[in-house]
Amino acid sequence: MDSIMSTIVNRRSIRSYTSEKVSKNDITKILTAGSWAPSGNNLQPWKFSVVMNNEELIKRLSSLTIYQSWLQTSPCLIAVFLDTKVVDNKVEGIYLKHVQAIGAAIQNMLLAAYELGLGTCWIGEILKNENLVKEILGASKELELMAVISVGYPNKNNIRSKRRVISEDIISWF
Q1: Which residues pair with 48 in a beta bridge?
Q2: pLDDT value of position 20
Q3: Which residues contact 159 (CB under 8 A, 6 or more apart)?
Q4: Interacting residues of 173 by C-beta distance below 8 A, sequence separation 6+
Q5: pLDDT in tens, 35-75
Q6: pLDDT tens, 135-155?
Q7: The model's pTM
């Protein structure tokens, strides 16, 4: 299996981290991967807020989700925002393509982190507390929270895996 396919099928959502800190250099590489995602008209509608090695702030953000017990053990959280200043909400269907670009950026980040030996988890449940996340991070009103990503070194003793098999149930051939 080639490298990218191996990365795609072996990456897992990590919900248990070691206490080892992550480096700014590795986080910069992850953010670079995110920024190279495709986006409509190359608008690059993403903004990132990084909380790194700051236990107090990580605890405050973690308290906004039902995943607090394990999320607070992550040494780094990356809040991913859609910058609504660069998108045209008036054109029907266009907003969705910008949201999809954010998804592509997040996927690039997850894959890059895996290649660096880091574990990640894409947290969407925290979106219910968007206003509190934005308040804690001092995010402007033009930013719309799309996800928070936890990043850290995986606790290898606690990785669960569900293998997926491509099946005819999810494919329509024409």
Answers
A1: 80
A2: 94
A3: 12, 14, 16, 119
A4: none
A5: 999 998 899 999 999 999 899 999 999 999 999 999 999 99
A6: 999 999 999 999 999 999 998
A7: 0.91
Give 137-142 contacts, CB < 8 A, sequence gap 24+. Answer: 137/49, 137/51, 137/61, 137/79, 139/47, 139/49, 139/79, 139/81, 142/83, 142/84, 142/85
Residue 146 phi, psi dihedral angles, 5° rounding: -105, -30
Q: E strands within the chain?
A: 46-52, 76-83, 119-123, 143-152
Q: For residues 150 and 75, what is the distance between their CA atoms, to the nearest angstrom?
A: 8
The pair of structure tokens assigned to 53 is 């090695």
Burial grade of 141 (CB within 10 A; 0-12, 13-18, 19 or more): exposed
Give the residue carrying structure tokens 């982190």: 113
* Contact (CB, 8 A) for 64 and 132: yes
Strand stretches in 53-168, DSSP E:
76-83, 119-123, 143-152
CA gap 61, 38 in Å, rounded: 29
Q: In this structure, are residues 82 and 102 in contact, taking their beta carbons and an 8 Å threshold?
A: yes
Nearest to 49 by CA among 76, 16, 72: 76
Put residue 136 in one of left, alpha, beta given phi > 0 → left and psi -120 to 50 → alpha: alpha
Q: What is the CA radius of gyration of the chain?
A: 17
